[in-house]
Amino acid sequence: MIISMFVRVCSRYNIDGTLLYDRVISIWTNVILDIWIFFFVYYFTKNQSFWRRNGLKKVVKSADNLSYYFYLVHKSVLAACAFVTPNQYMIVLCGFILSIISARLLLILTDIVVERIKCI
Description:
Structural class: mainly alpha
Low-confidence stretches: none
Largest sheet: none
Number of helices: 5
Radius of gyration: 19 Å
Helix content: over 70%
C-alpha cells in the first residue's frame, strides 16, 4: 500500500495528465488502497469485542448506515465544492463534511418516503 501511494504521488508530479497516469496508475493505486482498507477493517471487525470494549460499535453502525447514501451524493457534492474553491484540500474537507450531511438528510427523507408508502 505504501509503495502504491509512493508511485502515485511521484507519478502525479511527473506525468500527471497523461493517458498512462489517468487510465492506469491512478486507477490501480486506488484499487490497491481500497483492498488494503478492506482488509484493515476486516481484521479489526472480526474481533468484535475490540469494538465493544472501545465503544466504537455505534460509530461503525452509523457509518454503515450512511455508506450507501454517501456513495450516492459524494460526486455531486465534490463537483459543487470544486466550483466554490480551487484549493484541493478545501474541496476534500468541505466535500466530506457536506457529503455526510447530505447523506444523513437523504437517509431521513428515504425513511419518511418508505413509511408513507407502507401506509398506503
